[in-house]
UniProtKB/TrEMBL annotation:
Annotated SUPFAM superfamilies: Ribosomal protein S5 domain 2-like
GO MF annotations, alphabetized: 3'-tRNA processing endoribonuclease activity; ribonuclease P activity; tRNA binding
PROSITE patterns in the cross-refs: RIBONUCLEASE_P
EC numbers, comma separated: 3.1.26.5
Reported function: RNaseP catalyzes the removal of the 5'-leader sequence from pre-tRNA to produce the mature 5'-terminus. It can also cleave other RNA substrates such as 4.5S RNA. The protein component plays an auxiliary but essential role in vivo by binding to the 5'-leader sequence and broadening the substrate specificity of the ribozyme.
Protein name: Ribonuclease P protein component
Cellular component terms per the entry's GO annotation: ribonuclease P complex
């Protein structure tokens, strides 16, 4: 995680929050997927609910893009 997100304590806090959020969303990804979640500086001050909403939005875009590129095949 980039130092632009904040100091070590802040980066670790954001990392723990994102890990927790992703744990509940892993079943939405196709088996064998590799996903990198990158935190931007605003993540340091974002409320948990906002991080969850932004992550859900990003996952939806990713899954829609994948669905359209595979022609609906999984």
């Amino acid at each position: 995680m980039s130092k632009a997100v904040g100091g070590a304590v802040t980066r670790n806090k954001v990392k723990r929050r994102l890990r927790h959020l992703m744990r509940d969303r892993l079943d939405r990804l196709p088996r064998g997927s590799l996903l990198v979640v990158r935190a931007n500086p605003p993540a340091a001050s974002a409320r948990f609910e906002l991080l969850a909403a932004e992550l859900d939005s990003a996952l939806e875009r990713l899954l829609r893009r994948r669905e359209s590129s595979t022609g609906g095949q999984k």
